[in-house]
Every structure is written in structure tokens, then in C-alpha cells.
Design goal:
The chain is of the alpha/beta class. Helix content is 39%, strand content 19%. The chain has a domain of 173 residues: Spore Coat Polysaccharide Biosynthesis Protein SpsA, Chain A (Alpha-Beta Complex), CATH 3.90.550.
Amino acid sequence: MAGNPDMSIVVPVYGSDITLMPLYCRTVAAVSPISENFEFILIDDCGPGKPWEIIGAMAKKDSRVIGLKLAKNVGQHNAIKAGVDVAHGQWVVVMDCDLQDRPEEIPRFWGKAQEGYNVVIGRRVERRDETIKRIFSYIFHGLLKWVTRQNSDAAQSNFGIYSRQVIDKIKKLPEQSFYLPLLVRRAGFDVIPLDVEHDKRPYGKSGYTFSRRLSLAVDILASSGDHPLKMFSLFRFFNASRGKPLYVVTDQIRMT
């Protein structure tokens, strides 16, 4: 690939062996009319199945596929950080691996960004998630709105496009829980919402248990407030991962 790619697509992977090949094919079909000069970054977050073998097979056939294997499961948002840290694209797209985010929406994100916006994030018209997941999300975003004193929309997701300027500025922020919508605002950029369709999960169930969602929520909330929050600060103190790297890469696939 000559020079830096026009676009990097960053996808955290957890327990989605069946969806990886359809995700790749649909993404290539969606992005190629925009540019053939892109990279497709898949981060194996140590979930069930054998995604690393599938990622390796993809990379052998298409040098634009880059694989990162993490030392242990660190969760969706820190896995995204691992991908963002190695992305070289002028624009970075972040999406899920389970096909609930439609790759076909990427050209719409791109088109909106070309109107002069640095960040365009998907707003799910109708969330097709389990009831408990939707309830937890509304509670989390309500708390996040209270803690940060900023609007936090439960229909919004990580799925979106971010300019190189945004990515570079976010990477300079002090290491903390990597929650993109919040970091974008902290870096001083406006978020432009774009209504997108949200599909039902075609295979399996989400790897996020209630305890994992709670742990993530506490971690994000604890690092989000600009005023003292004793309860959340106490949780942070007892979080064993605090002070350690957010992720460790043990292997990388990058064909040249």
C-alpha cells in the first residue's frame, strides 16, 4: 500500500467467527467505490472460537487486512483503542463485528464528513438489542449525562467516522477508559449524528454479561466527571487494572 491509506476500518472481534467473512466482504464492497486504498484492522480480544485463524487467512488473501491479537480480554472499548493506535488512515471508521452495524452505512458517514465535519457518529433509529441491554444502556447514558453535564444519547454508538485530526488529538489525552464519544467531546470536537439502521444480531449472543457492562460503566463514569464523585472514585481505587496498560498486543498480522 503506497503511502498512508485514505481510510482505516477498526473492528474489535469477540466470539464472532461466523460473521467475520461476511463482514469483510460487505465492508470491501461498501468502501471500494470510495477508495481502494484502505486498511481493515481486526482486533482479536481473546474471545471464544478461532477468529485469529480466520483473520490470518483473510490477510493472506488481502494485504489490506491487519490483525492484532491481544494478550487477554480487555473489552470492546480498549480493543478499539488498540486498533486506533495502529491506524494510519486519514479517516478512521469504527464498527462492531457482529453485523448489527451495517457496513453499507460507511459511504453515508463518508459523504457527511466531506461536508466539513470531523466526527460523524451513527444514531440507531431503532435499537435491535436484548431488552436488558437497552435498559442498561439508558441507565448508563443517564448517569453519564449527570456526571459529565453533557448530553449523552443512548441511541448513539461508536459506529462512525473520525478524522485524522480527531484521532491524533484523542491519542494525546491522558490514558483512561477509552470511550470514543466522550473522548471526542473532551478533545473539543462537535459530534454530528447520522441516523442509521441497526440490525438484529444474526448469530449468537453478545459477549457482554451484566457484570462486564457494570464494570465498564463504572470505569467510564469514574474517569468522566469534572467534579468529585466519591462512590465512583472508590470503585476506581479497587479496580485492579488501574495503572496498567489498557491492552497488550502479543501478535500482529500485516502482509506487505
